[in-house]
Amino acid sequence: YTLDNDVLTTEQRQFYEDNGYLLIKKLVSDEDIERFRKEFMRICKREVNPLGAMIMKDESLRSQYGHSEKVVNKVQDFQEDKELFRYCTLPEV
Question: Which residue stretches, if any, does this entry annotate as coiled coil (predicted)?
């Protein structure tokens, strides 16, 4: 549920209401996206193991992608990973 304000257009609000998400291109810099992607990869490869983080995998993709990050569909409770959690604190977000 979104509130009437001047942050999102009426169309953006309706899309969010209908679909539960909203994609805003270039909201976050390419440099930050690359840093977050690298940290995500490190977590998927277990190069780092943030305390309490859960890696959710879609096992039906295992035959197609093996043990790659492409089977990971969610990383949850990653607040102890300072680099990845920084995304949540970006003013743009």
Answer: none
